[in-house]
Amino acid sequence: MNNNDLSEHTQRNLLSNIIIVLMFLGMMAAAIVYFNNASPNIKAEIMHTLAQQFGRNVTNAHWQWQAEGRPNMIMLVQYDNSGKERGRQPLRMDPAGWPHVEPTSESCEALWQSILYLPARVDGFRVIAEFYQEPQHTEVTNAQGPVSGYCRFRVSTGPYFDYYVNSGRVVSDEKD
């Protein structure tokens, strides 16, 4: 082999090695993206579960209110999975039988504590409770009826769920 043939052979080997390394890096990047997207979002899963539990507890409070003759307050008792009592506290109810919420974020945070009997934390992150007012439109053209609102429980800018104070409805941002 002469020098030209040897240098061409070396360049081809170098080029094929570069192509192999680039293909390997591309496959690694694709695998990382695939597995990153395929792994569950833990905060979203936890918030979705808490939204379901919140909804169940609100409904239980509503039926307890009905059963006790519609008092202004009920004693909400929390149980763990084994049926053992883990806490109880008085819960103020509104005239429609849903937990009472003042139009403040502090009231929403207190509601979280009362309904879930858990600290406002998800996977080490603080749960932010915020109250939002929304006008309800009546049948009259462009007239606004009474203002209603909802509590939004969220983790930073991530997953959240809303509790509508006038209906007891809980809506999660998670698509079922």
What does this structure look like?
This protein is of the alpha+beta class. The chain has helices at residues 3-38, 42-67, 105-116; strands at 73-79, 85-92, 121-122, 125-137, 144-155, 160-164, 170-172. It is rod-shaped. 18% of the residues are buried.
In short:
The chain is 42% helix and 28% strand. The chain is an alpha+beta fold and 176 residues long.
Question: Which helices and strands appear, and what pairs or packs with what?
Answer:
Blueprint: H1 3-38, H2 42-67, E1 73-79, E2 85-92, H3 105-116, E3 121-122, E4 125-137, E5 144-155, E6 160-164, E7 170-172
Antiparallel strand pairs: 1-2, 3-4, 4-5, 5-6, 6-7
Strand count: 7
Low-confidence stretches are 137-147
Average pLDDT value?
A: 83
Helix percentage: 40-55%
Radius of gyration: 28 Å
Distance between the termini: 68 Å
Strand proportion: 25-35%
How many H/I helices? 3
**How many strands, which pairing sense, and closed or not: the largest β-sheet?**
5 strands, antiparallel
Which strand order spans the largest sheet, edge to edge or round the barrel?
3-4-5-6-7
Give the oligomer, counting copies of the same chain as homo and different chains as hetero. Answer: single chain
Category from helices, strands and their pairing = alpha+beta
Globular, elongated, flat, extended or rod-shaped: what is the shape?
rod-shaped
Order of helices and strands: HHEEHEEEEE
